Amino acid sequence: MSIRVHKLAKELGLSSKELLEKLHELKVDVKGHMSALDDDSAELVRHEIEGIKETEVQKAAAKEEAKKKKEEERLKPLQANLPLTVKEFAIKLSIKPSELIANLMSKRVFAHINQNLAEDTVREIARGYGYRIEKPPTIEEEILKEFKERDKEGDAKKVIRPPVVTFMGHVDHGKTSLLDYIRKTNVVKKEKGGITQHIGAYQVMLGKKGAVTFLDTPGHEAFTAMRARGANATDVVVLVVAADDGIMPQTIEAIHHARAAGVAIVVAVNKSDLPGANIDKVKKQLAQEGLAPEGWGGKTIAVPVSAKTGDGVEDLLEMLILEAELLELKASPDLHARGVVIEGKLSPGRGVVATLLVKNGTLRTGDVVLSGMHYGRVKAMVNDKGEKIEEAPPSTPVEILGLSGVPVAGDEFFEVKDEKKAKTLSLLKQAEEKEKTFSRSGRISLEQLYESIARGELKEFRIILKGDVTGSIEALQKSLEELSTKEVSLKVIHSAAGNITESDIMLAIASNALVIGFHVKLEGKAQATSEKEKVDVRVYDIIYKAVDDMKAAMEGMLEPIINDVFQGKAEVRQAFRVSKVGTIAGCYVSKGKIPRNGKAKLLRNKKIIFEGKISSLKHFKDDIKEAREGFECGIGLRGHDDVKSGDVIDVYIEEKTIRRLTK
Ligand code: GDP
Asked: Helix or strand or coil: residue 642?
């Protein structure tokens, strides 16, 4: 097969001359526009030209994009953290709230002064005033930017780092004993003098196999309190379960806390030396909690140990190193240091003493660090063995001197280039903190639920459930979880019997959850924290009230569905021009009824040519509310005069239905 040049030119939308030039460029030998081209050559040209066309489309799109960008750039930047309320936005724009409200109304947005505005609305309005909204960088972002630049520069060689481990479990199951045993046998034994320094964390070396870092404060409260501050220091939770007692309420609570943090769990079945120890029973119970060990259909590592005899402890340590490898915990010692504050205190004579856990990079004496509002040059560094050290690689806990103030446990720390920059950043952080306390509008409350759903920010609504008896907790949990919809799933992340404690509030803060109590009290300290941190806590006496509240909140907040409900059909027999009024359709009601307040669809040859309101409905000269089947009537359509005999008018009524929570 062949194709002539002029034909191909036509196909490609070029003149023959243009194509001949192109062919010449491509070194295809042709004489004139009547020459025949073989398939391969034709294909080659098609490919070339299509390619050019495509790049032209791309170019046009890029140009459009650039134009948009330029337009955006021409706007003045306005730094603001979204969402903004009407009042806050007006202040930012330096206009009166009333002006803003009027402006919003003209865009059909009806909002009261303290209402949060949707992001799109804020951006659109801002554009109207010549602004583009920019999110101000947080101090952390500023520093991270610097870190990223350095990451690029530095040769970020990654190595496996020791896992950071926290012990959790029921009271008296042996968390402290295990921590002490490990410290004594693995740290003290090898040190002269045998004195250990309690600095809030310690590290155990297992020869060539690796090392494990333990956080010294057992229990989920300390764990979650740290997480509530934003940093997750722990990589692996060792769940301590006494073999003679089995899984108890706090064991389950610990599982929930660890899960909410997304942290790996390794189980230590302790007190295996006791005659009453029943390891299989514990494994079975673990399986029931979704932590099935090997041999029970799962993969959870469960190691029988004894803090008394030391049996199995070595195995546990090895398993932790193995877990670190599985989790691929890696860090780059070459980078500048960053990590988490484990403890901070003011020591008479020594000044501010802080225990830091290096998570990435290497911290050295003489480095400048910043944590929250405090900064300083590291004057001295001491490890968990009380030794002075110069360098702390990843996963090493160290005690340092030299910070300007006591840092908060759970806050992150960063190494900053120089002291001057650290000072500026610390001042900025102070201002940021101040603003936060002023503007904090609560973490999550029922009232805010909808806004978050509407903005698509919330896909999972988390609840912490406390009740008086297990039976009612289960019933309530089930009813609540059944409220889950396609848009939002409602998930109870922790449920237990007992009063609402501070630990529950901490979990709520760390996980952005709501707390529901059933026949229980909010403990004093928990109340204080919940008020300070603005955590929504609701206590109920009746199950259905709790469920109804959640349901109503979620339902009322879903957009109503608007349905057109068919009312009747009218056939246009004749169109009349009425001066000053317009065209009136003389109709016959062939089906149903025509209500005066209906919505009309005018059809011609089965196509909708107008959709709108009925402006008048008459029977002869009289205005009527409704025309019934088999009767004649005159219908006026608002703002539409093009009506002809043979047209059909279908009439509907709009019905709003509140959306029920459907599965
Ligand atoms: P925690 O509340 O989880 O920190 O538990 P503790 O470490 O304070 O231990 C509670 C009690 O159990 C103490 O009296 C310990 O001596 C005892 N205990 C802890 N581990 C073991 C163990 O492995 N075997 C035996 N027989 N007793 C243990």
From this structure: coil
